[in-house]
Amino acid sequence: MKKLNLVKIVNVLAIIAVFVMIVSPLAVSAQFTDPDPTGKGVASDTDLTTLLVRIINILLSIAGLVAVIFLIVGGFRYITAGGNEEAAEAGKKAIVNAIIGIVIIILSFVIVRVVANAVK
Fold first, then answer.
1. Where are the transmembrane segments (predicted)?
2. What SS3 state is found at 83?
């Protein structure tokens, strides 16, 4: 029971640490107030295709981060199985599923880039 609580605490702390590392630069760059010297504004050259590609890339980046976290958790489960075949098998399955997810996300990046270049 204590080991399970320790694993939960480590997982939560790892997720919080990753979140803080991702959000900290965004919070700092939110203070940027230097206007565009052309006078057109920051988003004047952004069309709908570029906006959609940026949004999809952000979502795919988040999905990639989640997949890497699942890969780490699966590896942790596999390492800490301690001879328990069911736990080791669950860890292996989590690792395989995370790798499949990462491959799908990478292919999604490629598809988005190809479609965006075809539309432009």
1. 12-32, 52-73, 94-116
2. coil
Q: Is 120 helix (H, G, I), strand (E, B) or coil?
A: coil
And the tokens for 48? 């709908």
- The CA distance from 90 to 92, in Å, is 5
The answer to whether 78 touches 92, Cβ cutoff 8 Å, is: yes
Q: Write the pLDDT tens digit of every residue in 61-99.
A: 999 999 999 999 999 999 998 889 999 999 999 999 999
Query: Which residues are CB-neighbours of 77 under 8 A, at least 6 positions away?
Result: 87, 90, 91, 94
- Provide the whole-model pTM: 0.61
Give the residue carrying structure tokens 């075809």. Answer: 118
Q: Is residue 117 one of the residues assigned to a domain?
A: yes
Q: How many domains would you assign to the chain?
A: 1
Is there a domain that residue 106 lies in? Answer: yes
